[in-house]
Amino acid sequence: MLTAAVDKSFGDVRVLRGVDLRVDAGEVHALLGENGAGKSTLIRIVAGVLRPDGGRIEVGDAVGPFGDPRQAERNGVATLHQQVAVVPGLSVAENVMLGRPTPNRLGFVAWKALRRDVEAIFEQLGYPMRVERDAATLGPIERTMTLLARALSLDARLLILDEPTAALTDAERRRLFAAIRRATGLGMGVLYVSHRLDEVFEIADRYTVLRNGRVVESGAVADTTTAAVVTAMTGASIEAMFPTHRAATDEPALTVRQLNGRRLRDIDLDVARGEIVGVAGLAGSGRSELLRVVGGAQRRRSGIVTVGGSPLVLRRPGTAQRLGVVMVPEDRHRDGLIADTAERNLNATTIGRHRAVGPLVTTAGERRHADSLWRRLGVRGSSVRQPVLNLSGGNQQKILLAKFIALEPDVVLLDEPTSGVDVGTKAEIYRIVADLAASGAAVLVVSSELIELIGLCHRIVVLYRGRLVAEVPRDDFDEHRILSACFGEEPTVVGR
Amino acid sequence: MSDAELEPAPAPARLAAPMSPGPAGRMSPATRLRPVMGPIALIAIVAFFGVLYPDTFLTRTNLVTNVLEVVAFLIVVAAGQTAVMVVGEFDLSVGGVAALSTAVTASFIATATLDGQPQQPGSVFWAVVIGLTIGVACGLINGVLVAYLGVLAFIATLGMAQVFTSLANRRVDGQPVFGLVEHNFVDIARGDLLGVSNKIWISMMFAAVIWLLLDRTTFGRRMYAVGGNAQAAYLSGINAKRIRLATFAIAGLAAALAGILQAATTATANTSSPQPWMLQSIAGVFLGMAMFRSGRPNLPGTVLGVIMLRTLDNGLNFTDLNDYVQNAISGAAIVLAVLPPALSRLRATR
Asked: Which end of chain B offers a freer environment for a tag, N or C, measured as fewer CB atoms within 10 Å?
């Protein structure tokens, strides 16, 4: 269905070097690689957003490269981006038909015909939908399905999915995968980009691994293992990703008693100095809300949170920070980074610290502060003066961590600290987190990747529908049991 | 250069705007030249009209009296507008605030009542203090609406602009208040020091204070953080609401000061004369954003921007062009000036 052989450079940096990729009709083909390996560049070339320097692209009988996204779309390439966009105010049916003539009579929309056509498409996906609904009312899974229906209605031969499950719960993800299977059953080829290897092994037939702009491995998913893929992506093995385990203290640092709030029911939790506690649970189980309440970003209804023995007043994140509690938010673009230089971002939490007289800042102090954090976390880039959004995802994540670490916190709350980050940077972030704990901080980590919690934590607690349903010490870590607790199937609290 | 930089992460459109384009560390020639484009454009405007009208345009009297002294009020208003735009909002009520503060100040020191009866004028000092206080209060109202009640700045300040202007007209019965000559009110603006007019001194000092605030204080750092991403700033421990509130108060103070300066210059308080300031101040900030600090609002840029706009308007006055055509040209010039950075952002995404 797709054959691509392309080269691409930005300036004098070669991003793709003779990359060959073939996606067959009816298959899901996973495109894997760390950030900076060239994945996004490759899919943007196929989708007509970027022009390659050399090489060719064929989709069916159409020969590219395509000059712009519309031309690519006309030739059968449909793309679903990470940020799934529909037009609010229009119905689902109109969104599916967007940009093309809708059935009409003398210029008036023929609603009946339109509804019939579009409902038939959703039928093919096995996802019944009331197509006259306003697209503004759609949840993430419904938006994704709407765009999938649109791709189908366009007779797309190649569908590019870029991190399609980022905003979905596990149940929704299964429905999406079922729909993808239906689409491939109709002869569509799917190019699937995701950082989550568990998903890749669930949905993909074949895979291609990019490293530094070259294809380093390609084959059938059935013939490989997670460990082998990670090794191909990074050149290092999965065990090497986690730092050596160090014992926690038993001095209490963070205590949560009978905490209630939005999505939280009677949470009791203790974290000791030097301890890393993982919070597992499905999306919507209250795991992010727990961090947000303790971090001062969300109101609690009742309950007590104490740090180092003194009760916390949780009015704003700023008040929590003054008492030694920091929360590193999950979505670095929406909640984490300021559209400015890396230096300004690194100083964002400590603006009052570098002062000459009164309210006047010392720019030299700020620069030293930013430089030292930059070096300490091993950010790769030209200098702290560069715009933070020009950095790669992994380096942006380090900047985000750095500005909170700068407060030398006693309690660190990490929400998906490695989301959208390549495997190499993940390992570096694990080391940073372990070092924080070793220096005496209490760490609470939320992650959707169980393997990450198992590798990193001293203890894992499981939330299910706002309640803490299981607590598992490191010696009893068992992927299947923790997973079934996440689904509410094993409501037992394992002793400490 | 390391691998990590090879792929500039595609940021969501919301965040992507104000950054300079191109891979890290290397700037395109257009980006490098941008800081000198503004001054060059200003020199070009002066040269162009100077060649055409050497005896009228290119005189000290014209350039000082008709350009710098007129632009003095606008620099003050635009400095306040810059502050508001730094935090990612804007203030469409600056004209209304100026009208209201001026009307109140004027009514205290006028030598005649609205009916034309002579009256004993009050203290100039207290009248000015009351006028400035009203400006701050108007700004606080805008700030509460936007920061604490979540009304969009666009509609909140647009609506309040009408409220302030109408209250001002109610105070002075829609008439200009003439004869504000008592108690040396006019000396505030008309006097001079070292041969330079007071209003130029005052506007330069005000601009310097705002520059210091934005560029060199912890408050300014917090303002830029809130403007860069309010949610991220809040989660970084910054009290974003309070910062926004204070910023609107600054804009209100600036508008009131500019209105009073203008009233002192003309010895007349007129509720309609500050009305064009809204568009002019926002245009000035945008021009400044196009010139300096990789697309963020900044004070030197704003000052240069309003001077450029005023110089162009003044030069056009010497031509034979119809007034409406002149206005159309200066409007088009604003849009043209912000086009190059807009285009380079567009290119950066290809």
From this structure: C
Cβ distance of B4 and A391 shorter than 8 Å:
yes
Q: Which of B9, B231, B296 sits opposite A396 (nearest CB)?
A: B9
Per-residue pLDDT, B225: 93
Residue at which a domain ends, from A214, A237, A260: A237
Element counts in chain B: helices (H) and strands (E): 16, 2
> Number of folded domains in chain A?
2
Same domain membership, residue A246 and residue A233: no
Residue with tokens 């030097």: A274
Query: Across A51-55, B60-64, B148-152, which has the greatest mean pLDDT?
Result: B148-152
pLDDT at B293 over 90: no
Percent of chain A at pLDDT above 90?
26
List of chain B residues whose C-beta atoms are within 8 Å of the C-beta of residue A40: 7, 10
Does the pLDDT value for residue A288 go beyond 60? yes
Q: Is A298 found in the same domain as A195? A: no
Give me chain A's average pLDDT, please. 85
Which CATH number covers residue A226? 3.40.50.300
- Smallest CA–CA distance from A85 into chain B, residue: B12
Which pLDDT belongs to residue A321?
92
The answer to whether A248 and A443 have CB atoms below 8 angstroms apart is no
Chain A nearest-CA residue for B28: A11
Question: What's the CA gap between A315 and B305, in Å, rounded?
Answer: 41
Decide if A391 and B17 are in contact by the 8 Å CB cutoff: no
Range A363-389 average pLDDT: 88
**Cα separation, B307 vs A45, whole angstroms:** 45
Cβ separation B217–A333 shorter than 8 A: no
Q: With beta carbons less than 8 A apart as the criterion, state whether B68 and B272 touch.
A: no
Please check whether residues A248 and A217 belong to one and the same domain. no
Mutate to test the interface with A, among B2, B5, B217, B298 (most CBs of A within 10 A): B5
User: Which residues, in sequence order, are CB contacts of A404 under 8 Å at separation 6+?
Assistant: A326, A327, A328, A349, A412
Q: Which domain holds residue A274?
A: 241-335+391-486
